[in-house]
Each structure stands twice: as C-alpha cells, then as structure tokens.
Amino acid sequence: MTDVRTRRLSPPLRRALPWFVAGLLVVTAGLPSAAALGALPTAPTIGYAHPESGDTNATVNLTDAPAFVPNALTANPNSTFSVKLVNSGAYNHTFTLAKVPNVVLNTSWSPSSLDSFFATNGSLANVTVGPGATAYANVTFNASVSGDTFEFVSVVPYQFQAGMYGFLSMAVTGPGLELMENTTDSFAFVPAVLAANASHYPIKLDVLVTNQGSLSHTFTVSPLSNYTLSPANFTSTFATNAPLVSESINSGVGTTAWANFTVRAPGVYQYICTIPSHFANGMTGFLYVGVPPPPSSAPPSTAIVDTWILIGSGVLLGIGVLVAIIAAYTGRFPSKPAGPDGHHP
Ligand SMILES: [Cu+2]
Description:
Elements: H1 4-8, H2 11-37, E1 58-63, E2 67-69, E3 72-75, E4 79-87, E5 93-98, H3 111-121, E6 123-129, E7 134-141, E8 149-153, E9 165-170, E10 177-184, E11 188-190, E12 193-196, E13 203-211, E14 217-225, H4 234-240, E15 245-249, E16 256-263, E17 267-272, E18 284-289, H5 307-330
Parallel strand pairs: 1-4, 3-9, 10-13, 12-18
Antiparallel strand pairs: 1-2, 4-7, 5-6, 5-8, 8-9, 10-11, 13-16, 14-15, 14-17, 17-18
The structure holds copper (II) ion.
Residues 217, 273, 275, 278, 283 line the site of copper (II) ion (CU).
C-alpha cells in the first residue's frame, strides 16, 4: 500500500522530497555547533585555563631558564586554587599539574616517558602559555588532599629535564594529634620525651604546654629530624632552618599555650626552650614521631641489670670467695658428707 500523500504529489516534487529531507537533517545536525560558535559559552573545565578576572591565589612566572618562579606553592584543601601563569620568556612553556599526589617525577625520564606518565595518570591542569602571554589554571581540591603534594612541570620537551618543575603543597587541615607537655622552674620539660604514632604523613600535632612554674619559657621544635641541637648552635641552626613551631609559654603557674605544628616525616625531633641559658641548663626534650621512643621515660639507669640483682650477686660472690679461702687453709670445706656406711670413700 502506497502513502496517499506521496501519491498526490506531482512527480517532480516526489523526486525532490528525499533531497529536502536530507537537507533538513544536515541543517539540524549543524545547529548545535553553530550555536556554540555564537552566543553559547563553553563550560569552564576544572583545571584548564580560562581567563579569570577574580583574585588568584598565586602568580608563577614561566621563564626560559627554564624554571617556574616560584617553584613552591601552597593551597588549601576543600577550595579552588587559582594560579596566574605569566610567560616572561621567548619560548612556549606549560603548567602541567600531576593528578597523582606525593609522587616525585624523575628528571632522567625522556620527554616521551614524561608524556606517557601524564597520559596514564592524568593531570589536574595542563596549560600551554605562549611567549609573553598570561594564562590561568584553576583547580578545585576536595578535603581528602590534606597534606598532599602535587608536582607541576613543563612538558615542552627537555624543559622538565632541565629543571622546570615545582611542587604544590596542600595545607594540613582538621584537628591534630594532642600531646601534653609541662615547663618547670628547674629548667625542665616534663616529660622530656613525647611520642606520636603516625600512620601517614604529614601529621598535625597539637601540644598543650602548661607552665608549672613562674618563669616564662618557649616550646621550640627543631625542623631537623635525628639532629642534636646544642646551646651553642641552635640560634644559627634556626636562622637557616625555621623551627616547626616556637610557642611562648608566659610566666605564671597554670599558664597554658597550644603549640600546633605539622611534621612531614617520621623521625626524632628535639625541642628546646630558647630563653637565654635555659637550654644550657638542660631545658630540652625529644619528640619521637613514628619511631619507637626509648623503653621508659623513667630516669635512665646506667646499670645493665636491676640494683638488687647486682647486690645479690655481689653477696653470693663474697660467700664464694670466703669458702675458697677457708678451703685453702683447712682442706675440704665444708667436709664431704659421710657415706651411708659411715666411711669416707
Ligand atoms: Cu625556659
């Protein structure tokens, strides 16, 4: 059965109909792209460059050294980080931010190895900035990246290999691990050993320091792990390596202060009081992070064994010496017990 309407059309129109339909389909298909070219804005892609008139969190210069200046950035979890990228050189550079946290890329990789790393693991931003140009990268981080570090590089061949890389460190958020410390007028921290067990790094520590005396003190933690400070070197050490925290403990019994700081790696960190002469008088302690503290925080004993065992073995040794001396003068001492027949063998 043939369509009635088609039948009523004149032969020329009938022949043209498929072409009308085809033309209509082509126009319909072209509509979305035509609209995109016109008024419809393209949706901003998180992490990719688009001009931004608002505030940026940082400005980074991309130089022909080649280098990022500065190459150390910080950002907050649970927020959008916006960086302004200024190419001050004559070459193209990229700002390519790794998606995988806490990975340090190897500068001995070839350009194609670097490309395949990003192809496999993805990037949070990948912006090419031409000579003299300015671009922006906006990256939204969730709360889970607290304490993480992301590396950024230029993937223009051999720029990363020549040193064009840097690190974006996320602040550590959320409450820290709480520890208690006291300061005394006898220039002591009580206890002089603090221990924090951490399963991941960095770890945030909150130390509540209570003054048990009337003198004022500081609770100052060395940034160097497994490094022993001395009253003679701590000032110069802290001049080049800022303490993790230096909290003033004001005078007065019961005065408290919170020392809140972040430790990035396990180790033993020395803490001191920086008030002149206090450290020299013994005001120091050690913070064990992720490593076992000494077996006991009781005053260390130089004896290998317990005192009473030493005294006991001394007494027994004395008796032995006495028996030996008597035996030397009297023959067998004590004399061997007689056998059952009453005779000595
Ligand atoms: Cu002090």
